[in-house]
Each structure stands twice: as structure tokens, then as C-alpha cells.
Amino acid sequence: MTNFNKDVGGKLREIALLLEAQNANPFRIRAYLNAASTLDNL
After folding, report:
1. Residue 42 and residue 38: Cα distance in Å, rounded?
2. d(Cα 30, Cα 3) in Å, to the nearest integer?
């Protein structure tokens, strides 16, 4: 199960990077990064 969490966390980080490149709302970017971090810690 941890590999799945790390895979999903990686995808969430990729989305955050794409959003950052698009100058999206910083709170939205941080939400994706926080979700990735949470999955890594589970």
C-alpha cells in the first residue's frame, strides 16, 4: 500500500508543478503539496 501512496503523492506533486507553471492560485498549489505530503506520511 505504501508504494501506491508514494505514486499518488508523486502525481499530486506533478500537478502542483503544472499549476505553478500556469500561475494558479498559490493556495491551490499548496493544497496539492499538502495532500502529497500527507500520503507520504501514511
Report:
1. 6
2. 23
Per-residue pLDDT of the chain (42 residues; tens, 9 = 90+): 578 999 999 999 999 999 999 999 999 999 999 999 999 888
Per-residue buried b or exposed e for 5-21, using 16+ beta carbons within 10 Å of the residue's own CB: eeeebeebbebbeebee
pTM, two decimal places: 0.88
Number of domains in the chain: 1
Domain residues for 9? 2-41
